[in-house]
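Page 37, continued from 36.
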């Protein structure tokens, strides 16, 4: 990436301008940069944004100038069938909302793509009003940024996608930025057992500080899940690790009537599963996009929990960079050792 001076057009109807105070790096940014999902160049990436509202387009009345906000990639209409069903991340009209079907960014008159609908590795963004959620000003900007994607994705996989009942047993496979929040979501949901699975010993250790009751390396995960439950298996396995074998193992870790929630996979991965086992044992396999989140409900709730000390965000930030160090920040995020990396203008 390079630092460029772009023109940002004024906020149009139903759009909001936000001065960026922090933007966290998510694995989706790296997948996008790697070309995993196609897309157009040049582009500005970054979609876990905290900031302050500095411009209101016509018709915007749910935020005010000076509000501290999280900006999410969830651009939604509120009226299509999936929005009405409470799944705004799957909005069917998101590409048609306001003038943002075209990017608000130009370089020497030529369009620059708004990656993941935010373009948060920047000093300012112009986004649809549905993407902007007010948060308490006392929550530090870098924590607000985490709420915008990684936290609602991880916590939501447990609370929303799986709707896990209190006392259930869970495993989280892959203890990165999303997985650690699935561990915290399991604790918030009252899990009786939380097995954290990751090849990196430091991440397993860290997960125990957030509420994992047990840990395992991926190769031992199935055996450990069965051993810890007297052979019954787990009620819920959240898979955030990008591998097909992790999904196959997750199914082997489940108790009868258990649920595997798939949060992220590289496109092109193919998983081998026995349909008879799934049917016979009443297993469920559920996809979870952005944690089936409803950002305008979830972000304020989770911000309150963070301010009350019941959701731990501060220790999730392992690296901090200035915006002009973006390539170092990306390298840190790619390294696999980092938790969340945050850049600030
Ligand atoms: Zn993300
Ligand atoms: Zn919609």
């Amino acid at each position: 990436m390079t630092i460029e001076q772009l023109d940002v057009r004024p906020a149009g109807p139903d759009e909001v301008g936000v001065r960026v105070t922090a933007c966290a790096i998510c694995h989706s940014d790296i997948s996008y940069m790697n070309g995993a999902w196609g897309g157009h160049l040049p582009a500005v990436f970054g979609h876990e944004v905290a900031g302050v509202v500095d411009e209101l387009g016509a018709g915007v009345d749910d935020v005010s100038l000076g509000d501290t906000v999280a900006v999410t990639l969830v651009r939604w209409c509120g009226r299509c069938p999936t929005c009405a069903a409470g799944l705004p991340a799957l909005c069917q009209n998101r590409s048609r909302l306001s003038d943002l079907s075209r990017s608000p960014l130009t370089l020497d008159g030529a369009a620059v793509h708004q990656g993941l609908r935010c373009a948060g590795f920047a000093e300012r963004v112009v986004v649809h009003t549905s993407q902007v959620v007010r948060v308490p000003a006392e929550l530090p900007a870098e924590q607000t940024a985490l709420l915008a994607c990684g936290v609602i994705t991880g916590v939501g996989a447990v609370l929303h996608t799986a709707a896990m009942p209190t006392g259930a047993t869970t495993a989280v496979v892959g203890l990165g930025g999303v997985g650690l929040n699935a561990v915290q979501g399991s604790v918030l949901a009252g899990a009786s057992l939380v097995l954290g699975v990751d090849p990196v010993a430091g991440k397993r250790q860290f997960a125990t500080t957030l509420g994992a009751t047990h840990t395992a390396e991926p190769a031992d995960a199935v055996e450990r899940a069965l051993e810890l439950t007297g052979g019954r298996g787990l009620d819920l396995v959240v898979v955030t690790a990008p591998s097909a074998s992790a999904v196959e193992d997750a199914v082997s870790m489940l108790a009868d009537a258990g649920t595997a929630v798939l949060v992220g996979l590289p496109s092109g991965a193919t998983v081998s599963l026995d349909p008879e086992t799934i049917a016979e044992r009443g297993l469920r396999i559920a996809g979870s996009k952005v944690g089936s989140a409803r950002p305008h409900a979830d972000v304020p709730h989770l911000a309150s929990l963070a301010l009350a000390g019941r959701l731990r965000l501060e220790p999730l930030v392992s690296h901090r960079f200035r915006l002009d160090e973006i390539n170092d920040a990306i390298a840190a995020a790619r390294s696999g050792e980092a938790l969340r990396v945050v850049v600030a203008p």
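The radius of gyration is 20 Å. Flag for discussion at group meeting. Residues 3 and 324 are 7 Å apart (CA to CA).
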